Amino acid sequence: MPLPLPGRPRLGQASLLALLLLLLVGPARPISFQLPGKARKCLREEIHRDTLVTGEYEIGAPPGSSTGPSANLTGRAAEALCSLPSLSLLQITDSAGHILYAKEDATKGKFAFTTEDYDMFEACFESKLPVGTGRMPDQLVILDMKHGVEAKNYEEIAKVEKLKPLEVELRRLEDLSESIVNDFAYMKKREEEMRDTNESTNTRVLYFSIFSMCCLIGLATWQVFYLRRFFKAKKLIE
Q: What is the distance between the alpha carbons of residues 26 and 19, in angstroms, rounded to a whole number?
């Protein structure tokens, strides 16, 4: 019977750790909201650099919706109104305004991109009103956006590398642990930058305070000598 290698957890311990960590993290749930006609709604999220981002979206009329002009129509008129193009625009940009993904007349689809730097990314949905249709009914937008470990397709990885289910879970746990370590490293770097900024600000404030005190002392000394010469000129003092 082969013995486990030193320095590595046993198979049962590794599987238990993977199961517990995956249960704690849990899958991300999609976001859904109502998009009125002629409206624009945006979602923002900060994402680290060199991170894979994937997403799925679907735009359509909410089930059982009774709002909008189709509420007072029946038969073919309501069907014709509901069959009009949604003219919804999906656009994903970074803080600099660079367009990472854009889709006109978006109804359903997927997108994927890799971030180049740590930044704030914005996904905007905009509903445009067709000419001559009046007020559009509200649309239901469903967005499932994932990044990092969540964005990886481990089923495809398992097929390509021919991994067993336990090995797939261990791979997922390894990637998740690496992501957590990277997050802590980034937080440490940010803390160092903030500490350096704080120390630099304190040093500047100290120098400015010393300069202000020197200016005040110099001004007070000048006022004393000036008043003394003035009073001597007026022969008020000797």
A: 10
Q: Residue 149's pLDDT is what?
A: 81
What is the band of 179 on the pLDDT scale with cuts at 50, 70, 90? confident
pLDDT tops 70 at residue 5: no
CB 87 within 8 A of CB 78: no
Reduced DSSP (H G I as helix, E B as strand, rest coil) percent helix, strand, coil of the chain, to 5: 45, 25, 30
Question: Nearest to residue 139, comparing CAs of 29, 31, 37, 30?
Answer: 37
CB-count exposure of residue 88 (10 Å: 0-12, 13-18, 19+): buried
Pairing of strands 88-93, 119-127: antiparallel
25 Cβ contact partners less than 8 Å away, ≥ 6 residues apart: 176
Which pTM was predicted? 0.57
Is the CB of residue 44 less than 8 Å from the CB of residue 93? Answer: no
Tokens of 88: 């919804």
How high is the mean pLDDT of the chain?
77
Helix axis angle for 11-25 and 165-233, nearest 10°, is 60
- Predicted pLDDT of residue 63: 56
